């Protein structure tokens, strides 16, 4: 994760060095939805426009946790993208985007009593949303389990990284823009999914 953030920072500094007077900074936030994990969440993002055709963005997304029985799923993601503006007029901006995606996930459970015979409906219901965990290589996942006479608990956590490809649109208003974008995140990784985001960006 630190390497990805460091690389993003270096790229931004290099590109800012060669920007012109058209450079513009925006910050904002909104909502997002991951179609693979079927969860909504919140996002925060910043945007730096290098020139009339290119700009860079970074955003952080936090998906609302999901609880199924005695299990809880958590996800968050970080993205660094470059936008290419192919339409930019007084009202609308349409852009294509490409970049990198980092997704972190955590699955934890705490069953008050061990299921009779070692099986329970919990394990069937908990399978929903666990595709990312099951597809992730064991060496990338941290596991911990605790067994007592009255409980069965444990956790699984890990991360995946990949590429982003997508497109978006902005509608310009007095304070900034209202945006919506759709991207395929995590390409070439085991946690690829379609992600929709929408919100506002405010001019600084």
In the CATH hierarchy, what is the class? Mainly Beta
**Helix content bin:** 10-25%
Query: Helix and strand succession?
Result: HEEEEEHHEEEE
Strands of the widest sheet, in order across it, are 1-2-3-4-5-7-8-9
Indicate how many domains the architecture comprises: 1
Question: What is the element layout, followed by pairings?
Answer:
Blueprint: H1 2-17, E1 24-34, E2 39-49, E3 54-68, E4 71-88, E5 92-111, H2 121-125, H3 131-135, E6 142-147, E7 152-172, E8 176-187, E9 193-203
Antiparallel strand pairs: 1-2, 1-9, 2-3, 3-4, 4-5, 5-7, 6-7, 7-8, 8-9
Structure summary:
The protein is mainly beta and 204 residues long. The protein has helices at 2-17, 121-125, 131-135; strands at 24-34, 39-49, 54-68, 71-88, 92-111, 142-147, 152-172, 176-187, 193-203. It contains 3 helices and 9 strands, in the order αβββββααββββ.
Question: Your description of this structure?
Answer:
It is a single chain. The chain has helices at 2-17, 121-125, 131-135, and strands at 24-34, 39-49, 54-68, 71-88, 92-111, 142-147, 152-172, 176-187, 193-203. With 204 residues, the protein is mainly β. The chain is elongated.
């Amino acid at each position: 994760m630190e390497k990805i953030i460091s690389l993003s920072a270096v790229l931004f500094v290099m590109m800012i060095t060669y920007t012109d007077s058209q450079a513009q900074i925006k910050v904002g936030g909104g909502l997002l939805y991951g179609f693979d994990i079927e969860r909504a969440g919140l996002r925060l993002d910043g945007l730096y426009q290098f020139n009339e055709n290119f700009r860079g963005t970074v955003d952080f997304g936090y998906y609302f946790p999901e609880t199924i029985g005695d299990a809880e799923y958590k996800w968050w993601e970080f993205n660094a993208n470059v936008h290419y503006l192919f339409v930019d007029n007084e009202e609308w901006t349409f852009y294509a985007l490409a970049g990198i995606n980092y997704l972190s996930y955590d699955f934890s459970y705490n069953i008050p009593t061990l299921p009779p015979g070692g099986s329970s409906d919990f394990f069937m219901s908990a399978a929903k949303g666990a595709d990312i965990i099951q597809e992730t290589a064991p060496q990338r996942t941290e596991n911990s389990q605790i067994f007592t006479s009255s409980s069965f608990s444990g956790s699984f956590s890990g991360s995946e990284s990949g590429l982003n490809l997508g497109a978006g649109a902005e509608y310009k208003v007095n304070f900034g823009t209202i945006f919506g974008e759709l991207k395929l995140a995590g390409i070439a990784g085991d946690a690829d999914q379609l992600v929709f985001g929408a919100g506002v960006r405010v001019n600084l």
